[in-house]
């Protein structure tokens, strides 16, 4: 009996939903309908009145922090020449203390000073006692000044040289390939001088 009552209530409920939807789809005549259909025309006219490429100022279109003003190129070159002149004057008079540099060499960055030793794992095609020039200089500094590169300092601005002291054989590198349960095993030994 409960099943019969539920089956009888379902068509009535479904019929009410269909009639409500059909009433909302139909456009009733009158002033309310005209205002609904004229709304897109009103928005189109507002868009056309604003200039092309205009973005209103909101928190998303402009950041909350103040805009930075970059210096003019002529002023920047004048300031650069002034700083380099002061640094050259300090070096000429010998009032700079201990110099240091950050260089990029053999895929690493090294902070070096005079008489420092660097141990690298790479193989170089130079003989012992040869002097090499480290050209990728990121930073040079002393007690009174620091010159930063963006990202590197110019070759005419700074010169860092190194001497190859020793080349010895490194430990042998063993490359092992192995697949479990496949009876596959390969062992390769590489010896190199560094």
TrEMBL record:
Residues 1-15 form the signal peptide. The keyword Zinc does not apply. Keywords: Signal. The keyword Acetylation does not apply. One of its GO terms (cellular component) is ribosome. InterPro entries: bL21-like, bL21-like_sf. Belongs to the bacterial ribosomal protein bL21 family. This is Large ribosomal subunit protein bL21m. It comes from Equus caballus (Horse).
């Amino acid at each position: 009996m409960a099943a019969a009552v539920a089956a009888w209530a379902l068509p009535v409920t479904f019929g009410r939903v269909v009639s409500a939807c059909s009433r909302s789809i139909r456009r009733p005549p009158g002033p309310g309908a005209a205002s609904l259909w004229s709304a897109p025309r009103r928005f189109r006219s507002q868009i056309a009145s604003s200039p092309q490429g205009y973005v209103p100022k909101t928190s998303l279109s402009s950041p909350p922090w103040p805009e930075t003003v970059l210096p003019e190129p002529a002023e920047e070159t004048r300031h650069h020449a002034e700083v380099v002149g002061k640094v050259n004057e300090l070096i000429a008079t010998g009032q700079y203390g201990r110099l240091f540099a950050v260089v990029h060499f053999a895929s690493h960055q090294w902070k070096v000073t005079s008489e420092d030793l660097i141990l690298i794992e790479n193989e170089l095609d130079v003989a012992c006692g040869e002097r090499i020039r480290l050209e990728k200089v990121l930073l040079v500094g002393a007690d009174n000044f620091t010159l930063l590169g963006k990202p590197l300092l110019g070759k005419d601005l700074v010169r860092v040289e190194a001497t190859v002291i020793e080349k010895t054989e490194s430990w042998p590198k063993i490359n092992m390939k192995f697949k479990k349960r496949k009876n596959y095993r390969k062992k390769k030994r590489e010896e190199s001088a560094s």
